[in-house]
Amino acid sequence: MGFKETFQINGENLLQKIKEIIAEGNVNKISISDKHGKEIMSFPITVGAIGLILAPVFAAIGAVAALLTECTITVERNSEKKEEDKKDGPAEPPTTITVN
């Protein structure tokens, strides 16, 4: 079982944040919602999904970013990350980060 993180971000920084999240690894799925909570797009991130596989996804995210002023990114991560965090110390509640 995984856990979720939520990031609030403006449209200009959307694509860069998605790339950062994917580069961190340990991601199962990413969902993008508008400021009203309506899901705009959702896509799975499979192990080994890189380069050409993600190019169409990045193009779609770029198009969505042009239309949105504010959005929310929900990231579903693998449980291994959470278990590692437990070893290091007490678990923290989900993080919400606002980037302007």
Brief digest:
This protein is an alpha+beta fold and 100 residues long. About 7% of the residues have low confidence. It contains three helices and five strands; from the N terminus they run βαββαβαβ.
Question: Mind explaining what this structure looks like?
Answer:
The protein is of the alpha+beta class. Helix content is 34%, strand content 34%. The chain is built from 3 helices and 5 strands, in the order βαββαβαβ. The protein has helices at residues 14-24, 55-67, 79-88; strands spanning 3-10, 27-34, 39-44, 70-77, 96-99. The protein has a 5-stranded mixed sheet with strand order 3-2-4-1-5. Strand 2 and strand 3 form a beta hairpin. Residues 81-87 have low confidence and may be disordered.
Biggest sheet architecture: 5 strands, mixed
- Rounded Rg: 14 Å
Low-confidence stretches: 81-87
Element-by-element helix/strand order:
EHEEHEHE
**Discrete helix count:** 3
Beta-strand percentage range? 25-35%
The overall pLDDT, averaged over residues, is 77
Secondary-structure class:
alpha+beta
The termini sit apart by 32 Å
Proportion of residues in helical segments = 25-40%
Number of DSSP strand runs? 5
- The largest sheet has its strands arranged as 3-2-4-1-5
The protein's oligomeric status is single chain
